[in-house]
Design goal:
The complex is a heterotrimer of chains A (668), B (293) and C (159). Chain A is α/β, with parallel strands linked by helices and 668 residues long. In chain A, 49% of the residues are buried. Chain B is an alpha/beta fold. Chain B folds into 2 domains: 126 residues, Up-down Bundle (Glutathione S-transferase Yfyf (Class Pi), Chain A, domain 2), CATH 1.20.1050; 139 residues, Rossmann fold. Chain B has 13 helices and 8 strands. In chain B, strands 2-1-3-4 form a 4-stranded parallel sheet, with helices on both faces. In chain B, strands 6-5-7-8 form a 4-stranded parallel sheet, with helices on both faces. In chain B, helix 2 packs across helix 3 and helix 4 packs across helix 5. Chain B is globular. The model of chain B has no long low-confidence stretch (mean pLDDT 93). Chain C has a 4-stranded parallel sheet with strand order 2-1-3-4, sandwiched between helices. The longest helix of chain C has 19 residues. Chain C is globular and about 50 Å long. Helix content of chain C is 43%, strand content 14%. Chain C has a single domain, classed as Rossmann fold. Chains in contact: A-B, A-C. The interface between A and C is large, with 51 and 49 residues.
Chain lengths: 668, 293, 159
Amino acid sequence: MSNNGNGRTNGSPRIGVYICHCGINIAAKVDVERVTRFAETLPGVVVSKEYKFMCSDPGQELIQKDIREHDLNRIVVASCSPLMHEETFRKATANAGLNPFYFQMANIREHVSWVTKDKDLGTEKAKALVAGAVRRVSLHQALEKKRVDVHPDVLIVGGGIAGIHAALTIANSGRKVLLVEREPTIGGHMAMFDKTFPTLDCAACILTPKMSQVKDHPNITLWSYSEVTKVDGFAGNFTIQVTRKPRYVNEDECVGCMLCIDSCVYKQARVDDEFNQGLSKRKPIYIPFPQATPPVVVIDPETCMQLSKGKCKQLCAEACEKHAIDFNQKEEVIEVQAGAIILATGFKTFNPMRIPEYGYGRYLNVYTSLEVERLVNASGPTGGEVVLRDGSKPKSIAIIHCVGSRDHKTNKYCSRVCCMYSLKLAHLMKERSNAEVYNFYIDMRTPGKGYEEFYDKLLEEGTHFIRGRVAEVTDWALTDAEEGKMIVRVEDTLVGMPRRIPVDMVILSVGLEAQPDADDVRRLFGVSCSKQGWFTERHPKLAPVSTATDGVFLAGACQGPKDIPDTVAQAGAAAAEALAMIDKGFVELEPNTAFIDEEVCSGCKSCIPMCPYTAIKRDDEKKVAVINEALCKGCGTCVATCPSGAAQQNLFLDEQIYEEIEGVLNYV
Amino acid sequence: MTYLYYPGCSLKGTGKAYDESLLAVMKKLGVEQQEIDDWNCCGATAYMAVDQDRAYALASRNLALAEAQGRPNGKPVEVLTPCNACYLVLLKAQKRLEEDALGKRKLAGALESAGLNYEGKVSVRHPLDIFVNELGLDALKEKTVNPLNGLKVACYYGCQIVRPYSTFDDQYDPVAMDQVLEAMGAETLKWPLKTRCCGGSMTGTIPEVGMRLSFIILKEAKKRGADVIATACPLCQFNLECYQNEMREEFGEAVDIPVVYFSQLMGKAMGLSDRELGMQRLFVPFAVPAASK
Amino acid sequence: MSDAAAFEPRIVAFFCNWCTYTAADLTGVSRMAYEPNVRVIRVMCSGRIDPEFILAALREGADGVLIGGCHPGDCHYIEGNYKMLRRYRLLLKYLRAMGVDERRVRLEWIAASEGDKVQRVVNELTWTIRELGPLALPVMPQPEGAGASEESALAEANA
């Protein structure tokens, strides 16, 4: 098995050790010079050097030069985390003709200099880790990465603007895309908006053409009202199970004429319309909004007479000339293959009931910003007219910023979009209702192209800005002028006094939160998420759309609050990353699979039930265990289980780990 | 279940009517109680501001006493604490004993010097919590002989019962007192000032600030048509009731309205006498209107 | 036994690549300082951690061992962390019988986002072991003394 790629590794190890300063990132808390001199004394070490930035070109060249000049056959670099630069140094090693797996890294930045206060103690810890790496690398063996072909299709989860943009980008390159959306239509939050900041483009005008492109694109398969329920496999070869919920309407037959909706036995719409945020009603058979994509009706089984009670005249089915309505439709589970996955599952808005002092749910005329988006929308429940729930028209409006953002009781983070959309709503409300508009803000955050200019414009329009976090929205009046109004109580921090502003309408600028099931979704796809539920990118700066799981990429607000321009940019980036992987045609797998030493194996079968991938079988003729390398993912559980030491794991051989243990403990 | 009763100083002084009416009501309802032997002042908010460690020690002594006196029956010890200030201070002390390792060590030392020890087995309960969640509203309905029909009550909870800890009710819009009095026939007010501060001890120290806070509550209750304000805290009751004349002078607006303890209203509904309920101690006299009988 | 003030425990940690090792990187990136006594050895999965690694570490001079894996249900390899949990339970019994205080060997589930937990757990373990003092493994018992040593260990466990 140990096939020494370069023919120079026979005989005793000749180790080169390289300690990185990382500018002052390491050098501030680790005496690099001392560690370098210490490494020289370790058995097998031929050269030990320090350098400002080992990952730089000159740093890598230093290693390569030494490999040639000193005939080194093992390399140790003590610098940052292997999760950061292991690949970099493996490549450098390979470029000098040495097998890249004759390399080991010691993490003296993330695990030492950045977490240790005392330089002497940091130096000691660094020495221990270097000693462990040196002892370990002596036993390293030459390995080859395995190449696996990549399935050329891409799965995109979530059909908001992020998913739509990524899907179109990939489809336009000639690759096939499966776009899976949980709701009956794609479009996401953006479809609900009236205008977009700062240009005041009509959201529908720029979004709906893209939605129909998705529907018509020959390379895109759109499955709405569907959810991914299982994911197997790995980068390049995922097997995905998608569950398609029954919409009780045959999608291929329905032409979206909506005659069925008119003929429903419910003459009046009685069910809260989700798309309009409950500001209007819909029937049990409905289409979320006129431009819904696919333009197919859906039946809500909870309120449909036939589906909930089993008894109805079924006038809808009668009305459909295409006979598209099918009350017997069942959930369908379909398995598909994909090489890469893009998660674009978006966000949800903060539920302001969690801040009871703002009166949402208690006072009729307190609205969330998303409700107001529908209210001012020409295709919304009031046709764009600003009419309150009690039928009146507001003469004064309060917009409260940072509801569920920058708040230690709810979410500490800034939701990034609320300042700008609050300004947009302030502008629209003033334009449509001519009301006095008061913005209550903590800080105005308008970093973006044309954003500050938009803020400036609002200031000139005569919108009022009051700096201070609102304490309470209430209805107890102190003066006659306040009677019948809602009173916004706030400390105006610029004036330095508490104020009471009576208004007719209150808009809560709710923050963005992760989807409530983000934790289930991340588990499904093997990615991690922050405590707030945002999916974690591989690196916040240098790998912002990749995840810790190869082949799974992120787009849009599922990774953190984002506005539309940033979301589209990130979706493009995710599409490019996925395409780069697919067009390469293959992925290389870390050669850390397990294997069995047949000489030692007693055929006891202890390892077989341990394997989560059923990669181990027993060869009954030879009476030994056999590991199917193609199925093994390299966890090493069987190795730890094997009572005789017959099972071993490449890159993590028992003796390598024992050497590392002894190295970190007995380095002195 | 026998509750250990921690009246606190106020209920033995200005809030005597709360003590009398609560004990009378509980007796009628068959709730057994026994006063903690040798209890001391909880320290209230004042001592906490001066010397935290000593204030906590003072409060913890009551918890330790309760644990020692209540443990022998082998059941968890429940301390019934009617005064809002006492209720909050005991909860605060418990929290410190649970969460702050250093604070706990200090308190253990202080208790030890008095021959006491606290293991954390006490739960502090408010009578409203007991009435709603232990006895249940049906039991209250059963004991109602003179339902408070037609009586419009503004339930005023005060701040300390729900802030910062809301142990048994909604923090912003508590409902326990409303539920109790509605079960006994009264109509309660939907209003936003249920937990707004009455001014607390500020009425004594900076009266122009404190009185204004009380005034806002009285004015709003009156404006919304309340016949009476029901309270659960001796200081709230005192502030709201005793300065009504001064407020009329100060703010030029009459806010005369009776302010009673919720337990007094319960007692009236259960047919107890005015004497038993300490009604004669009120400054603004209150009688359940004949129409409501 | 050495002077308690001068005693600095040596602790070996085995962290899984996907959750706890990544979390420890995050602790670093967040500059959350912690006690410098732990040396981390990376494995792909906590399921790879052979109990013999832990015993080897104690034998080679470690005063404590920390094992870090993904939270239940989060294992990158489906269930390696459960396998580790089983072994850990058995190992503790064995350590008790050996007379090793079980507080010296700690298993923690630490997710990739829990950088603060790495800090807390490492600090707690270091402080605990500082109080416990250096690990003094029992001397290999003489054949006739074997029963006695087992009894005394048992008595200690029952105490």
